[in-house]
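Cast an eye over this sequence plus tokens and explain the fold to me:
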Amino acid sequence: MMVPLDEANKLSFNRRISDGDTVIVYERHDSMRAVTVSPGSDLQNRFGVFKHSDWIGKPFGSKVFSTKGGFVFLLAPTPELWTLVLSHRTQILYLPDISFVVSYLELVPGCVVLESGTGSGSLSTSLARAVAPSGHLFTFDFHEQRASSARTDFERNGLSNLITVSVRDIQGEGFPKEHEGCVDAVFLDLPQPWLAVPSASRCLKPDAVLCSFSPCIEQVQHTCETLRSSFTDIRTFEVLVRSYEIKEHRFAKSVSEEDGSPVGPPPQKRKQSTLPANKSEQAESNFSVMAKPCSTARGHTGYLTFARLTVLSK
């Protein structure tokens, strides 16, 4: 469970794996999968066969071995890891954008948040953790099948007490009136977010923050024009992150390095070399840690526009 709760709605994370739990099976940084633990089942991959029954009772983070000696790690399904393994029903937000949204919306435990649309639920899980244990996320999607799939994922990850999923066309109908004046933050991921701005402004508490995610700058411009009537401190960001791959690299240690010379002898013509042929070819294998930019670094995902609801003085 991502944010396990007891009956009193207090955090009580169970660090040991139980029957029915969702586990992130980690092979390497770019190879992970979500698995539901079930006695009698097993997982087969390139490292061998792993029996689920061997996982039960082990703490999350355990290194477990297959029948032929290969190993994987069993990790808890945090929102960060879930974003990397979930089924993509729509375009999703990734960790750089998600962390920026959670921070800029000023979310703390106890906040009430409105989200539209739900999509694949990538952001929803992080919003729920941010407002736990006493807050709540109300998320809406106009597509009934997507909403149903998201609801199933939230139940699977123990978030049902924190998230309510509803089917509703927010662009056409706006948010339900029951939320007016009692919401701490609103997040919009819609083709035409400006259509939902008037409804969002009625739902937000004074001085609360709205965020709109859009992939195109033309959407941002239109949304900002609409926001000016009721919001202030309007800002737009594009979050770009450069990832690096850390690897051990093997290199040959030359004879001059063995003698303590950091540079080595000056260049010489081959015929003038005084080193024995067999010694000049000696080399010792060493390791060095190298960092290089990932070749698959993610570029533009979208624009994040934030605005604060204006407080009307009387």
